[in-house]
Amino acid sequence: QKEVEQNSGPLSVPEGAIASLNCTYSDRGSQSFFWYRQYSGKSPELIMSIYSNGDKEDGRFTAQLNKASQYVSLLIRDSQPSDSATYLCAVKEDTGRRALTFGSGTRLQVQP
Amino acid sequence: SAVISQKPSRDICQRGTSLTIQCQVDSQVTMMFWYRQQPGQSLTLIATANQGSEATYESGFVIDKFPISRPNLTFSTLTVSNMSPEDSSIYLCSVVVGKETQYFGPGTRLLVL
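^ Those are the sequences you sent over. The predicted structure of the assembly is below.
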């Protein structure tokens, strides 16, 4: 099984700032990438998916993918205290394995 | 997406006993998975629940410890057998909707004493 790496954090940002969450993956053949948000005591909730190089925007969230660098990121603009959660990066590897491979998650704290 | 329910939502069990967790989906899905999330850790895939055949287990997980049933395309069970405190975890059911997007159930929080 290949790896998905994330900085565990916590990443602390002030309210209104941009939070930048990063993820690297080892399987060069991976084609599909996902960001999940997990509040404490809750199950993961899908935020965004991205499949092509470049940026994909959805409201305050922007996912960025660079397949050459094997790097995917999530930007959260105008961060709110309600964004405080653990953000999980997930990758669909090109191994025939149907389940996603998850990173260990980055804990984000938005300070009011 | 899909609406996924799990029962029980939480339980406290004694060492050596077994617990069966149910996962129900509101629509037929081809792919269904069981994950474990230990305290402070990320998600670890236990197995793929296959409809009509034996589950496919990941390295480190065996059928005797985690028997899985999947009688149809909307339902699956995971049993945690002969439990020890190390099995204390959140157990999550997940399904694939569409091409490959995974959605998670609310989870079952298990504490083994």
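The interface with chain A takes residues 1, 31, 33, 41-43, 45, 48, 59, 90, 92, 94, 96, 100-107 of chain B (CB under 8 Å). Chain B is about 0% helix and 50% strand.

Shout if you want it in another format.
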